[in-house]
Amino acid sequence: MGNTQPYIGRFAPSPSGPLHLGSLMSATCSYLQAKSKQGKWLVRIEDIDTPRVVQGIADQQLKQLEHFGLYWDEQVIYQSQRLARYQQIIEQLKSKHKLYACECTRKQLKLQAQASNVGLIYPRTCISKKLNYADNAIRIKTSTDDIEFVDAVYGKQQANIQHLTSDWVIKRRDGIYAYHLAVVVDDAEQQISEVVRGVDILPLTPLHLDLQQILNYQSPSYLHHPLMIENENKLSKQNHACRVKDKNRIKTLNQILTALGQSKILDTDQLDTFWKSAISQWDQTKIPISNYEIKTN
N or C: which end of the chain has fewer CB within 10 A? Predict the structure, then answer.
């Protein structure tokens, strides 16, 4: 990435539940990283997995961001409005002979596939079958080479996709496009210069780098931050994390600063002043690699 490229960061929640402390931490980290570099901060709603989308949650999440003084710099992008673009990319990949149809059921995969730390490793059962695209899931032919990159917090990373997922499903049998496809295309077309997100996505980053190379996209930089942990579990909607409380906003944000290795802002109860101080003191080198354990009484 060239030094002349302006900094553009993003926060990309999925509207499956209100923002909780962990998702607000991700928003805060990406916002401070962007604003400390005099960059833009964008918001994208990742509502592509329609069975998980809860009606009205996207608007609620945007209101929550505003309530905490987090304002985005460009129009909010909704992945559900970009399906035609994702299909164009699918057709492009077909023309490059990078895709194939797969008829394997989940039950078959559980019996055939080995497990990895991010899921199942597909054994390429259908790669030579030349099945009909219309009636089956579609998989992408992934690289067999080791993929290396440097994360701003966790340092040098090296992985081989064949030991993670092998050829992952880029479009499901029910027509839903994969998160990995949508996020790579959106990051490229929004010209995101650095992806800031939780460390739970770090092991999947090689899939994104591989697809970027296939599509001739310039890869962004990556910064993965530690997670909020409660009772040894990541705060997430799947773990029924409570929505972030609307009261005591400065206290909540200071807890997030602590989790990110930054000093608390103690001399104000005004959000504008808080953010100015937080931006001016932001130091990404202080972000810890260890997760933050929420103390429960």
Answer: C
In CATH, which of 3.90.800.10, 3.30.70.1050, 3.40.50.720, 3.20.20.150 is domain 97-171?
3.90.800.10
CATH number for 8-83+186-286 (one of 3.40.600.10, 3.40.50.620, 1.10.600.10, 3.30.70.3270): it is 3.40.50.620
Contacts of 137 (CB under 8 A, 6+ apart): 101, 102, 103, 104, 169, 171, 172, 173
- Whether 34 and 3 have beta carbons less than 8 Å apart is answered as no
Q: Evaluate whether 89 touches 211 at the Cβ level (below 8 Å).
A: no
- pLDDT given at position 240: 47
Provide the pLDDT for residue 19: 94
Residue for token pair 């496009």: 177
Distances 12 to 46, 58, 119, 246, 249 between C-alpha atoms, Å: 6, 11, 22, 21, 21
For 272, the 3-state DSSP assignment is helix
Structure letter (DSSP) for residue 20: B
Rounded mean pLDDT for each run of 10 residues along the chain, 297 residues in total: 79 95 96 98 97 95 97 98 98 98 94 91 96 96 98 98 97 97 99 98 98 98 95 55 79 96 95 98 98 78
